[in-house]
Amino acid sequence: MKFSFMVGVREQHRVDFSFDQFAGNLEILVDGQPLIKDFRMLSLKLTKRYQFTVGVEEQHSIAIEKERKLLLAGFRPQKYRIFIDALCHSEIDHGSVMLNSSPA
To answer: Which CATH architecture best describes the domain 2-99?
Structure first.
């Protein structure tokens, strides 16, 4: 699963998310620079949350939640939620994207 989104008004930043569901490699880039790298193969938790801040003059708190199914998670669709400044910006569920209209 790969997706990207922009954050900020005066000071814009691009956030890129990439997760290889079969290999377990996860990476989050901000403005093309690696910020978070993780390996998600075996986990007891159904939801994993990644939190970070972008910006210098115009800071935004970002959280990306990855939710998996209980059984055979590597073979089933997973749900992703993007939060900007604690507000749900969008949900991505098996290829469909629901965006909220709140600017950030």
So the answer is: Beta Barrel (2.40)
For 23, which DSSP code? T
The DSSP result for 39-79, as a single string, is: E-SS-S-SEEEEEEEE-SSS-EEEEEEEE--SSSGGGS--E
Q: In the beta sheet, which residues pair with residue 53?
A: 61
Long-range CB contacts (within 8 A, 24+) of 38-42: 40/66
Domain ranges of the chain: 2-99
pLDDT tens digit string along 31-76? 999 999 999 777 778 899 999 999 999 999 999 999 987 776 666 7
